[in-house]
Amino acid sequence: MSEVLLSAKNLTKRFGGLAAVNDVSVDLWRDRIHVVIGPNGAGKSTLTNLLSGDLPPTSGSITLGTHDITSAAPEQISRRGLGRSYQKTNIFLPFTVWENVRLAAQSRAAQQPFNPVRWLQSARHDAAVNERAEKALELAGLTARRDFIAGAASHGEQRQLEIAMTLATDPQVLLLDEPLAGMGVAEAESMVELLLRLKPHHAMMLVEHDIDAIFALADHLTVMVNGTVIASGEPAAIRADRGVQAAYLGRNTDMATHANANRQDDPNNPLAPRSHNTAPTTRHGHDPDLLIHAIDLHTYYGASHILKGVNFQVRRGETIGLMGRNGMGKSTLLKSIMGLVKPGAAACW
User: Fold this and answer.
1) What gap in Å lies between CA 17 and CA 200, rounded to an integer?
2) 75: helix, strand or coil
3) How many C-beta atoms lie closer than 10 Å to residue 292's C-beta?
4) Do residues 35 and 214 make contact, with C-beta atoms less than 8 angstroms apart?
5) Residue 263: burial class (beta carbons within 10 Å; 0-12, 13-18, 19+)
6) Among 346, 311, 331, 33, which residue's Cα sits nearest to residue 182?
C-alpha cells in the first residue's frame, strides 16, 4: 500500500536576494516515482539539496516518516532512511565495484562499544555488512562486475554503482539527480529498468532531462521554472499543459513532425543532411571555404561509445546548430573537434 515517506511544505531557499526555490511543496510516496523537470537554473538540484540536508532551507519544513528533518545534518537524514545520488558520479575510482559498495554498507554497521582490538580486525569479515553489499549489488545488476575496478567501468555502470552504494545504506527514500545524464541509448534503457525494479520498495524523486525516460518512469511530474512550481500532476496532464510547453518543452513541441514536414532533400532546408561522402584531397583541400571536415567520428569514454560515425562539414560563413537532449553527445563532439577528447577513430581537420 502506498504511503507518504517524505513530505516537504512551503520550502524556500534564498541566496541573498535570489529565491532559488520559492514556496515549493512535494510529497514522495512509496511505489511511486516523482520526477522534477525544468530548464537549467530552475531550482531542481537546489530542491534536492534541501531535501537531503546538503542545504538548509530559508523557510518551510521537511518530514521524513515521522521525523522532522528540516534542520538535520545530511548524515542524520541518511541514517533516517534517505539516500541520494549526485549530478556528478561520486564513487571511489581506484576501488573495485565490490569495495565501493561494501564501504557504503559498512556505514550502516551496528554501533559497538569501544574496543581497541576491533580496529585490528578486517571489516571484510563482517557478515552483516557483506550481506547488505551483496543485496545492493544484485539489485543494481552489478553482481557479475563486482571484481572490476570502478574507474575502468563504463559511464552507465558507474552510475549504476553509485545507486548500488546508495542502496547499501538501506534507504526508503531515493533522491536521484540526473541518473541518466551522459548515457547512450542502451545504458539509459538499463537504468530505466533498474529504477522500475527499485520502485515497489522505495519512494523516489528524480531530477531528469531525458524526455523519453521521464514519461516511461514518472507517476507524478512537477515542473519548475525560476525556483517556482508552474505545474504538478499526472504526466499526461503535464504533457498537454500549454504553460509547460511554452516554458520547458518549447512552443513547437513536436520537433519530429516539424522535421518530417520539411523535405529532407531540399537544399534550402537547414535540417536536411548534407553530403559528406567526398573528402577533400588534402587537409585544406580544393575548397578554400571548407574549414572543418569530420569523417566517421567515433569517441569513447572508457567502454561507453558516445559518438558513432559522425560526419559533417563547416564552411566559411556558415553557422551550424547542434540539437539533441542531454547525453546525446553534443559537448563530446565539440571536445573531439577541439582535441580535448581523443577520438577513437576518425578523420577530422
Assistant:
1) 41
2) helix
3) 13
4) yes
5) exposed
6) 331
* Annotated domain spans of the chain: 4-249, 282-348
As given in the structure block, the three cell numbers for residue 281 are 584531397
Q: What is the pLDDT of residues 131-168, one digit of tens each?
A: 999 999 999 999 999 999 999 999 999 999 999 999 99
Our CA dihedral for 166, 168, 171, 176, rounded to 10 degrees, sits at: 20
The helix (H) or strand (E) run that includes residue 97 is: helix 97-106
Q: Where are the beta strands (DSSP E) in the chain?
A: 4-15, 18-29, 32-37, 59-64, 67-68, 82-85, 173-177, 203-207, 220-225, 228-233, 290-301, 304-315, 345-348
Nearest-angstrom CA–CA distance, 76 and 15: 24
CATH of domain 4-249: 3.40.50.300
| Nearest to 181, CA basis, from 163, 198, 159, 197 | 159
pTM score, whole prediction: 0.72
